[in-house]
Amino acid sequence: MDNLPINQDAPIYDLQNAQIIGPFYRRYSTEEQDALIKTIAKDLVALDEQTKLLAVCNFFRADEELGKQVAKELNIDLTPYLEHLK
Fold it and tell me: Which residues are in the Catalase immune-responsive domain (predicted)?
């Protein structure tokens, strides 16, 4: 996988990071995307639920499918949070 050019000093919710991560994620092969999702989930699993949800929200902003897949891997139901988008 390519190294993502992310500003390490920027907050995780920085919109610029989301705008950068999405296109990189979409460039990855399905296998690379799956590996990335599993790695992200492994890093987040020990965190409290609120922090996991904030992280998933940020990944969702970067790429909707990435956010959904990370949520799925963490067993987070996004339905209550996405109902207003219908």
Answer: 24-74
